[in-house]
Amino acid sequence: MKLRRLRYIRRVLLSRRAWRVRAAFLLGAVLVGIVSSAFGVLSEQANRLFFVIADAEPLAPLLLTPLGLVLVAWLGRRFFPGSEGSGINHVIAALEVRTKERFLTLRIAAGKILLTLLGQSCGAAIGREGPTVHVAAAIMYAMRRLARFPADYMARGMLLAGGAAGISAAFNTPLAGVVFAFEEMLRGFTPRLAGVVILSVVLSALVSMLLMDQRYYFGTAAAGPTAQLGDWLAVVLCGVVAGLAGGLFAFLVLRLSRAIAPLMATHGLAVAFVCGSVLVLMGVLTDYRVMGSGYDVAKALVLEGDAPAPLYPLYKFIASLASYLSGIPGGIFAPALSTGAGIGADLHRLLPLASLELMVLLGMVAYFAGAVKSPITAFVIVMEMTDDQNTLLALMAAAMVGYGVSFLLSPQPLYHSLAQMLIEREATRKAR
Fold first, then answer.
1. What's the pTM value of the predicted model, to 2 decimals?
2. Over the stretch 143-161, which tens digit does the pLDDT of each residue have?
3. Residue finishing a domain among 151, 183, 212
């Protein structure tokens, strides 16, 4: 018995191979925290740059946005193929294929950061969160060379840890990072991977918090406890309306992505120009408020009750859709939260069943759950971003309502369906 225990201790605690694996995860997590923090700071500056230009010369975006999206699309196709889109679908695709290098290289990660920043500086309605997941997974996957392990099992662990750490560092939401990894990326729980994923998330979140000095993504909200009948009626109202809107967004992304795929292959730059023109039109109709990630609009709603114009969520919906279909790198997390917040604010104008703050949070959760089909991630991420546990039950209920009604319009999970398109496209490329 003692001999067996000694052998176990030697194998687990004293093995060089085991320590190389641990070092790979730990170093990767620290690098993810550093890169994600820098990406976050640069992303905010890129968004601000666009608005500085628009304020100085209101007509400049009429050329800057469509031509800027064309430039980003051309740079992506010419120098960084594989960097387009959110990036979460690329990580999911890498989890499902054996040749992961096609989707995850440090070159693609560098291009993802550069082109996302360039797109944001041109006013694209994109976020950094999906790209952060892609970049984080690429960094973690590159760490496999340090550990020198060929096992596909450990490579999957690296990708899961990177994806979770990316969400955690981007939003400063460690719990949501873990939940997202197992709910969305893996669609199942693997106990043997749980430890490395959680450790990577904790380390990357700590590094991000130390460097950025920002504890909560949206500050501290004060929606108050949900004890009134009106609050629960608001849960149903926001859950149904925002959930259907999220389902419609996912439906249009999937349907239009498939429809324009042949056109993207031959006339991708023309598609980017048309999408950029639609985007800037939405900007003109809203004094450019729908441009950019939407983070500032959502934060003002959550913390100050500063509601945008009544049709803001509709314009933001179209702007986000156009930005994604243009083929440039960029995520939909922040735009989705902003759109959902606007829906909650509009519903409060029409039928103030609960406080504005609560209905805004309910709209966020339901829209996100309806679009992405990850209800647990939806309510956990909003709860952590706002430091508001009083509304947890209401957020859970709104997420499940939004998730349920979204199946009426889009039964397929968004990121997994986009990942399948990537896998099919790669198979077609190899067959030629």
1. 0.88
2. 876 666 555 556 666 777 7
3. 212
